[in-house]
Amino acid sequence: RRRLLWLILSSVAALLPNAPAMAQTASVLITPVITPDYSRDRNVSVRERFYPDYSPLGIDLGGFTASPSLKISPSFSDNIYRDNNRRVSDFYVVLEPYIALRSNWSNHRTLFEAGGDIERFATQTLRNQNGWYLHNSTRLDATSDLNITLDGRVGRSYESPYSEDAARNQVVPSSYLRKSASIKGVYGGGRTRLTGSVEYSDYAFSPVRFANGFTRDQAYRDRSIVRTTALGEYALSPSIAAYGELVYDRTHYSAPAPGGG
Prior knowledge:
The structure is a single chain. By secondary structure, the chain is mainly β. 0% of the residues lie in helices and 55% in strands. The protein has no helices and 13 strands. The strands form two sheets. Strands 1-13-12-9-8-7-6-5-4-3-2 form an eleven-stranded antiparallel β-sheet, with no helix packed on it. A two-stranded antiparallel sheet has the order 10-11. The radius of gyration is 22 Å and the shape is globular. The N and C termini lie close together (7 Å).
């Protein structure tokens, strides 16, 4: 099944203060390629400012800097299956290993990342998760006003049990393998910034198992997405910018939904 989606946002005036991106509190399956973020270093509070003196130094490798880290979070839940008819409590630990390799070049830039999102339960081992990802982003500085970024990512992620698309009362968490590649060009001169990108993403979902032992295949959710985005921004003042965005999506599902074509 193929689905075609057009989204057109006309030029509007919007307040765009230069605030840092906030961490997401919910899992997003399809993330935007381009977000309006015309940075002009105005309207930034003291708490929101970036302080490089407090950042980890990393490991100097000549032209690169390596930044490894490991986050360990022990936790407890009195209802790990999110099922009030079958409440089960358990201790578990979340491990988040991460390593980044960043270039220190005067021109161009490349970043290699690898990370994990691993959960281990004390008794309910069916809830164990083995999330991971590999990512590379390379920026080529064509001129002082124009740069091109090539981006590639592959990884396995787990859906939030509160997601609208996730199956209810699942014992084994729903996961999907995502592979994506994109190219983005940015031109900035004076008060104007123009951005264009093309992205391809592929999602393959794993089967889910329920409390009654039934296993359901999720191949009907497998999809590939091609998305083209164009964004234009013009700074009217240090605090106000007008922008217009055009997005074209084409989604292809590998199999029909159960009970339908």
